[in-house]
Amino acid sequence: MIVGVPREIKTGEQRVALTPAGAHALTEHGHRVLVEETAGLGSGIRDEEYAAAGAVLGSVERVWAEAEMIVKVKDPVPPEYGRLRAGQVLFTYLHLAAVPDLARQLATAGVVAIGYETVERADGSLPLLTPMSEVAGRLAVQEGAFYLGRAHGGRGILLSGVPGVPRGNVVILGAGTVGVNAAKAAVGSGADVSVLDVNLDRLRHLDDLFAGRLVTLASNTFNVNQVVQRADLLVGAVLIAGARAPVLVDQSMVARMKPGAVIVDVAVDQGGCIATIHPTTLDDPVYRVSDVVHYGVANMPALVPRTSTFALANATLPYALELADRGAVGAVRSNPALARGVNVWRGRIVHHGVAEALGESPMPLDACLAAGDRDV
Ligand SMILES: NC(=O)c1ccc[n+]([C@@H]2O[C@H](COP(=O)([O-])OP(=O)(O)OC[C@H]3O[C@@H](n4cnc5c(N)ncnc54)[C@H](O)[C@@H]3O)[C@@H](O)[C@H]2O)c1
Prior knowledge:
binds nicotinamide-adenine-dinucleotide; alpha/beta; 37% helix; seven-stranded mixed β-sheet
């Protein structure tokens, strides 16, 4: 198969979908890899590194025109719509329920669109979202520590403390992927850490993992109210799948926080779990409410594109290889996780969430496959 990797052109996006190791693996399997010139630069990967791994470098026109499968990071943007070709496989983050117009564009173009965020294992885990949650969780503490600096608007606290001076206090709401990774970074930095969740099994897991180096607490209004008042850094990391994040910290609790404390609400992309948070950008990440610094960047992994590129590509490559080796029909037939990732199949909306956003009924994937579509 010819696999194309375009340069990402969505504003601020510096990641690239394939690393030289991925190009090497695909060529080793007998596929041709076409990478757009300078596609890797934002992540610190030079064209020569791709060439040395067996990829061919080419223009944007060539990549889109020749590739049977396009591997990307972000959803296509309008200048890319006209480049989509019927039968082409598009493997990338899509988030189509939020952009129904793009779903229509993909259906009209006749592509097979597989969304990273909807690839789902039998246990409900989302293997292509996990790496970005890992990055965001660890980054939440790194960014929080930065904004606790006095010159950056914070209380002027060093999270580790020093001998004779207490550690900073970090409170993490939610003990999922973001929460565990924030806890690792916070414990590693020497802070005094508390983690809250409604799921006691998650707390048991953390208790085992950290062997007494942090405090776990059941998440309820009483406990949240108490810990938030002690926090120097408060990290929001809750998720209820498919729903808006629950608001656990109301305005009056924020008003009772220490002056110069920092809130990093990673869950801001689902509405946030702190009442006073709103989405911000990496260009202008923070604002103050009640003398508390609020950080609401909705695409935190974009701050560290090199790490994020390698983390994402490690997770996507096995699926990309399967799609290339078996073709889209063979791959979705043999791998149910990948089948759940199909959003649009050659003109038909397959994913129920996307169909619902468009006010349509989804077409079952099996029906699409049985309709006798030729292998793509
Ligand atoms: N801002 C960014 O750049 C960025 C990047 C990655 C992920 N995220 C977001 O971070 C959020 C967390 O993602 P995740 O991968 O850790 O999800 P996850 O499903 O792994 O974990 C969420 C946790 O929240 C817990 N929870 C639910 N309700 C709660 C409550 N009332 N009190 C305490 N805990 C509660 C759940 O039990 C679960 O353990 C999501 O909204 C995700 O989209 C944001």
